[in-house]
Amino acid sequence: MGESISTGILAKWHVKSGDSVKRDQPLFELETDKITSEGNAEASGVITLKVEAGAEVKIGQVVASIEEGAGTSPPAEEKPAAPKPASAPDPAPQPKEAAPAARSPAVRRLAEETGVDPAAVAGTGKGGRVTKGDMISAAEPATRPTGAPTPTPAPPAAAAVAQPGARQTRKKLTPLRQRIAERLVSAQHDAALLTTFNEVDMSAVMELRKKYQEDFVKRNGLKLGFMSFFVKAVVQALREVPSINTQIEGDMLVQNHFYDIGVAVSTEKGLMVPVIRNCDALGMAGIEKAITDAAGRAREGKITLADLEGGVFTITNGGTFGSLLSTPIINPPQSAILGMHAINDRPVAIGGQVVIRPMMYLALTYDHRLVDGREAVTFLVKVKQEIEDPSRLLLGL
Predict the structure, then answer these.
(1) Read out DSSP for 114-156?
(2) Where are the extended beta strands (E) located within 202-304?
(3) Distance in angstroms between the alpha carbons of the first and the last residue of the chain
């Protein structure tokens, strides 16, 4: 999980005790202060859970055990029955059960701990074999008073249950949400944040997408979005205004000479910023593929720490949710972040005439300790120029 992560919340189990699982099958979700990831089965067999959903666990802690081969082993070979005397009547048929010697150590242990006789348990394993899961299921009703209702499983500790008529529900913040809160507050306390705004006419980009979208999809298997244009525009602007591509480390000013751009992705667990590497060397299709892949893994909980580290600049698109204007907060230790917003038709003056154009507000929040106002405005104007004349992006101007 990375050296900086020592604990997490086991947020959700995908299986329950006694289930048969297969190797590499997703078993649980682990939430940490940086990412949400899945834990997979290391072997096939029957699983026994040792930790409840919602519990805080240490990295390296055992949260379940898997009895390899349980539930799939063949029954013990039966010896041929000895010939019966002719005069002896046939005995009454007995329930078919594997020989005691064929029972697994886990079944024998559960028999000793719970007092449940395996011979009285209907086996669901191959050949009617009694599995650990069968023993666990048989033991649960044995521990309840006769006639007592089957208890409803308790919700995870992190879940909130709304009672009828309740005015509030309460639930514990996830580690990821706590970390997001800490970083946002820290960014505002530790940096001198200032935001500058501009607006951009999206007509040229929208016309270009409309003209070449079909061919782009046929060749690359995915649509050409707006984000790839803004990523390329940001790379060009960073080249022209290198002070934006800097960060502070202690008493040192670090100038970056690479262009790994973070793209904010909204997930059910919170905001994540996977980093698209070497954007200066990628074409539009390469950027779109990288963004689609990273966003998909983030939403599926398959993102890794390496995917989130090392970015020099971040782009966030509040326009996806209809935001008209906002002041984004930088992603430390980066010195700036670009906020995109909703595209709306608005009247604008062009060549002395009032025309209706699809307009977007842009917001650049920057750390005034590193970036002066002149540099911030120059950067944002450069992004505006690139988007309003996308042919400049193709020519690297």
Answers:
(1) H---GGGSPP-SGGGPPPHHHHHHHHHHHTSPTTPPPPPPPPP
(2) 246-249, 252-255, 261-263, 265-267, 270-272, 275-276
(3) 41
Cα-based angle 83, 87, 93 (whole degrees, multiple of 5): 65
Instruction: Tell me whether strands 313-317 and 261-263 are parallel, antiparallel or unpaired.
Output: parallel
pTM of the model: 0.64
Cα 299 from chain centroid?
Answer: 5
What is the set of active-site residues? 368, 372
pLDDT digits (tens, 9 = 90+) for 165-190: 778 888 777 777 777 787 778 888 88
Whether residues 358 and 229 fall in one domain: yes
Residue-number span of the structural domain to which 114 is assigned: 7-77+89-142
Does any domain span residue 258? Answer: yes
Strands (E), the chain: 7-13, 20-21, 26-31, 36-40, 45-49, 56-58, 64-68, 193-201, 246-249, 252-255, 261-263, 265-267, 270-272, 275-276, 313-317, 336-340, 343-350, 353-367
- Check residue 42 and report its DSSP letter: S
Number of domains in the chain: 2
CATH of the domain at 358: 3.30.559.10
